[in-house]
Amino acid sequence: MKIKCVFLIVCLLSTACLAKEKLAISAQGIEPWRGVHLGIGNKKAVEQLTSVVPRLAGLGVNVIVGEINYGYQYKSHPELARDDANSAMQIKNLLAACRRHRVRLIPQFQCLGHQSWSKNTAPLLINYPQFDETPGKYPDNEGIYCRSWCPLHPEVNKIIFALMDELIEVFEADALHVGLDEVFLIGEDACTRCKGKDKAILLAKAINDYYKHIAGKHKIEMLMWGDRLIDAKKISYGKWEASDNNTAKAVDLISKNIIICDWHYELRKEYESVPMFIEKGFHVWPASWKKIDAVMAFVDYSKRHGNARMLGHLNTTWGAVKINELPTFKPLRYAVDSFSGK
Ligand SMILES: [Zn+2]
Which of 48, 124, 186, 276 could serve as 323's disulfide partner, Cβ 3.0–4.6 Å? Predict the structure, then answer.
């Protein structure tokens, strides 16, 4: 009994300590966010990541954004889990490794867009084709980049929120990343609910719905990619890194407490969206990819033009490096060193 009590006290104390550590890398914290983003939508990825966490932490990584999407064995909607989806036990193992090494683990669930990739449609629209923004159009996804769900369908959020609830629970999450990048299909004529509506207002409604659930109900931080909030007419990033489809006005219709992950992968002289988001009152987390010269330029620009609301740097990977080789990924090393004072 005594041993049990001692064990309990130690656990409680260590949890309290970890909570303090986590605060240091919250948006209100003092520690720069030295992060890496990667897909963890299958068992192998989670196992590999779990084993590499100690080395990443040793380099100085203190945040991991794990994009899981339909790669978890959801109990509320088992029909939406991929075949090789992770069990709760596997997520707990990853979480334990992260906590042991003082790494904040943030799950990501890709909302609204990216509901297909190439010919493969993701489980939501396979099982619930009525949620499709362009129902019956684009067979085999030909002629489009990715499918979207309809932000005005009255049943879709009920299902998505159930998935979010499970992720927040199993990850014991203090933040959730909702994706939202590259939403090209929104307010389409093919949708009877959205046809003719202002795309920025539609996007803002979706963002506000998620924010209300995540920050309002769960009281945790929300992150999203920033590209649909950047006006391509004002900042010449092109139609991928910025919005050329009339969604950018949404930037003024959403909570400033949302953390904007501002991704840019090309070498540029300026990355004006960083000061733009900061001036509007957001916290911004610049994100780069694999081109080392672009990573260096973006990291350095962010440091010059940021303030306390510029959180650090997030390295994405997108398959450019194997998970077990992540600690040798030069772009990650540069950004982490840069925000470690090395
Ligand atoms: Zn719609």
Answer: 48
Gap from CA of 158 to ligand 1 centroid (Å): 16
CA–centroid distance, 229 to ligand 1, in Å, is 19
User: How far are the Cα atoms of 110, 115, 172, 185, 205 from residue 149, in angstroms, in the given order?
Assistant: 11, 7, 27, 9, 13
Going from the Cα of 194 to the center of ligand 1, the distance in angstroms, rounded, reads 4
- For residue 90, give the nearest of 58, 60, 68, 64 by alpha carbon: 68
Give me ligand 1 centre to Cα 8, in Å: 50
- Planar angle of CA 287, 266, 144, nearest 5 degrees: 85
How many angstroms is it from 195 CA to the middle of ligand 1? 7
Check if the beta carbon of residue 341 is closer than 8 Å to that of residue 312. Answer: no
Beta bridge partners of 104: 63
Cβ–Cβ under 8 Å, residues 73 and 26 = no
Contacts of 301 (CB under 8 A, 6+ apart): 270, 271, 274
Distances 207 to 179, 200, 311 between C-alpha atoms, Å: 10, 10, 21
Contact 299, 260 (CB under 8 A): no
Neighbours of 29 (CB within 10 A): 15
How many angstroms from the chain centroid is the CA of residue 303? 22
- Phi-psi sector, 172: left (phi>0), alpha (psi -120 to 50), beta: left
Question: Is residue 331 within 8 Å of residue 292, measured between CB atoms?
Answer: yes
> What is the distance in A from the centroid of ligand 1 to the CA of 281?
30
Q: What is the pLDDT of residues 109-135, one digit of tens each?
A: 999 999 999 999 999 999 999 999 999
Segment 232-284, tens digit of pLDDT: 999 999 999 999 999 999 999 999 999 999 999 999 999 999 999 999 999 99
Q: Which domains does the chain have, with CATH numbers?
A: 32-111+156-338 (3.20.20.80)
CB contact set of 10 (below 8 Å; sequence gap of 6+): none
Q: Which helix (H) or strand (E) holds 147?
A: none
pTM of the model: 0.93
Q: In whole angstroms, what is the distance from residue 76 CA to residue 163 CA?
A: 7
Cα(285) to centroid of ligand 1, in Å? 30
